[in-house]
Amino acid sequence: MTEDTVGAFLPGARTRRAGASEGPLAGLTFAVKDLYDTAGDVTGYGNPDWARTHAPATADAAVVTSLLEAGARLVGKTKTVELAYGLTGENVWYGTPTNPAAPDRFPGGSSCGSAAAVAARLCDIAMGSDTGGSVRIPASYCGIYGIRPSWGSVSLTGACPLGPAYDTAGWFASRAGVLRLAGEVLLPPGGDGPLGPLLKVQEAWVNAEPATARALAEALGAAESVLGSALPIQVAPEGLDAVYDHFRCAQAVEAWASLGPWIEATHPELGPGVKERFAAAKAMDPAKAAAGRAFRRVLQARLRGLLGGGAVLVYPTAPGPAPLLTASQAEQNAVRERTMGVTAIAGLCGLGEVTIPAARVGGAPVGLSLVAAPGRDRALLALAERVADAAGLMV
Amino acid sequence: MTEDTVGAFLPGARTRRAGASEGPLAGLTFAVKDLYDTAGDVTGYGNPDWARTHAPATADAAVVTSLLEAGARLVGKTKTVELAYGLTGENVWYGTPTNPAAPDRFPGGSSCGSAAAVAARLCDIAMGSDTGGSVRIPASYCGIYGIRPSWGSVSLTGACPLGPAYDTAGWFASRAGVLRLAGEVLLPPGGDGPLGPLLKVQEAWVNAEPATARALAEALGAAESVLGSALPIQVAPEGLDAVYDHFRCAQAVEAWASLGPWIEATHPELGPGVKERFAAAKAMDPAKAAAGRAFRRVLQARLRGLLGGGAVLVYPTAPGPAPLLTASQAEQNAVRERTMGVTAIAGLCGLGEVTIPAARVGGAPVGLSLVAAPGRDRALLALAERVADAAGLMV
């Protein structure tokens, strides 16, 4: 394999494994985020104290098995934000991967290494995970394709948890056809049938930086050429701030339930941002978390009813390109809040979302998202390929 | 039966028939628009020349049989606009029924007599038919409940055609519970399951007169109390003028195909408006009609995808209260065009629509429409009853 010039992979010896000699992914390579188990290796979860306090995995994660059996070759494990609890992709312990498409900017996270590895063409497919945007955001920032499949559609057996009610096993590819091929291996069968109409989520377009919205107009036109005129809609009259805040509160109690016991027992060193988020998770007001879960039920019923007939949401994956590496923590937090008001829509509702590397703003990539009802991931991947083709992108 | 003080029924001897002694509609009375056959009677279709050139029907229309078998008593046949081709409810041959809720205004049509009969409490249920608004509009104008069921869901056997691709057998009631009860008899089983979310069709609300939109705000709030916050959406970025125009052209060739041969053979006298519409139908440019049908396919795919998961459109049934009886033909035409830009949505797409007598403007009624995917009429009727109840209306 090519030298890891972007620091996408874990330092030290690489986990490598040949795939089956035949299969739909024969000849393709893949990497997995360091929260998926590979038998015999310690899963590090982005934090040295986690690695120190955990024994080597005794089995491969389900997705590793599936990809190997389909013929793909495992070429390594990629860096993750510590405990997957961050969106910039920063890792102070192992080094933040370079964003190959915009080296002066963050790669995005938490699946930062997987995104960087695919963007640098170090592998064809890379598994990430997405709770609140951890595949979609680095895909958008690094200029590659990414999917957050609908909740529950891809096995998380052998993956470290963050917020089990929101966690999904997603992946990246630099070509739409490869993203889809991996889906044919990883996703359950079914969910075919036509998608449409296209719904342009007004609040998400308004939330985007004007230059980003402008840059994505052409790709939106490509989507319209496939699905017909986009219908302007508002899906969260409560406001994206409310969507973000409810997601944050509901997720925090899950994160603390999943990881608090280990943190309390181990007192690990945690990097900037991550440390503060776990402190907030520990202190989360149960009433706010309950309100978040109640809002989730409302939004979920709403979006599932809206999308159940095949409708597809379309909006900028992130409000703009990746923040600069020189951004302050306050600036990063502001971007995070503005970003998650939109990513939390699919997060709260368990929807499938594919991001297409549709445009650049000042040289840095921005993605366009297509979002469909749970269980429609295969159709969504086929649609993304058609839209990318119509937009003249590499499919 | 009470005296027909509003001229809702055909003049002369009334068609009357007892229903089955038991059944879900036992104790209720019904009337049918004079385009449904009743055995032994000439079906007049609103025009003396039609009556003169047609023999008595040899069998009851399917809906007549269904209602009689369910225990309802038939108390008469009601006036219709000639050949059902008009929205004001005017009939120069038999007299325009009085709008019991606003006697200085048109009753709306083409199912004018059925609406007037129910509004004047002369019967519990009245069958109309709806191609481009002929149940919804008189229901809105007369302050009663009305349903245009989804296309194909209720039999039109034994009913005169106008535009077979758009014609539906709808009905009126002064109470939501009675409207639903008739649906349980007339509609096929199935289509249960939850409805939602509520989609507020922006162009239809903007199309309404400001006073009407304001008057319906409270009922919209009642619908939101049942289905959650309404999501603003635009369903026809092409514009309502285009929707109306495509409907008009596509329907006209159907109307001429259905009734042109009789008109050419008989040279009937036709009243004002109706005469001009059939002349236009005869002269319709086939290319415009084909464009209308093509638009129909686009809009139908769009709306069925949008509503297939259970979503419900909500908008003012008509842009305002009924036109005054003193309105000029030009004023009537302007209202007609503005009205049908909205009614043509369900018309073109075969959707089910229920109108609720939700408010008054300057003393005259205006209705609020709830619109669902084809096949969801039973659920829609149950929803309308809940919304009406939440709005404090008679259910």
TrEMBL record, chains A, B:
Q: Record's Pfam families?
A: Amidase
Q: Which segments of the protein form a coiled coil according to its record?
A: none
Domain Amidase per the UniProt entry, residue ranges: 16-184, 271-381
Going by the record, the broad EC class of this enzyme is hydrolase
Q: What Enzyme Commission number(s) does the record list for this chain?
A: 3.5.1.4
What's the domain of life for this entry? Bacteria
Annotated keywords: Hydrolase
> Could you tell me which InterPro entries the record lists for this protein?
Amidase_dom (IPR023631), AS_sf (IPR036928)
Which GO MF term does the entry hold, naming one?
amidase activity
**Record-given protein name:** Amidase
Q: Which organism is it from?
A: Neoroseomonas marina
* Lineage start: Bacteria, Pseudomonadati, Pseudomonadota, Alphaproteobacteria, Acetobacterales
